[in-house]
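To: structure desk
From: M.T.
Subject: fold request, one chain
Message: Could you run this one when you get a chance? Sequence is below, nothing fancy, just the single chain.
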Amino acid sequence: MKSTLTIFALLFSLASFSQVKRVTMSEHVKRTVIYPNPARSFVQLQFKQQIPAPALLVIYNFIGKKQLELVNPGNNVYLDLADFRRGLYIFQFKDKNGQIIDSGKFQVEK
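Reply: Done. Structure tokens follow.
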């Protein structure tokens, strides 16, 4: 009985490996350079993709509250962090249809 359970567990684990999604390297390429990170007084977000400039930049604090929204931010965004508290922030660049074209995070240290 014990060997049957062991074989079943082995087969189950092998079956779960076959369902792993294969990801190409292009899916992990970030389109945005963020510096400095962590930041104290400002952060620069540079969207470097060769597609049309993002239509929207949205920044959320770590609990999901919208901190900032910029319409047509362009490819190079300088953010003054005077109104940002210490913590982790998530950004999303969206296209004109509202689809996320890149996202990432940066940390504010004060």
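Reply (cont.): The longest strand covers residues 100-108. Let me know if you need anything else for the meeting.
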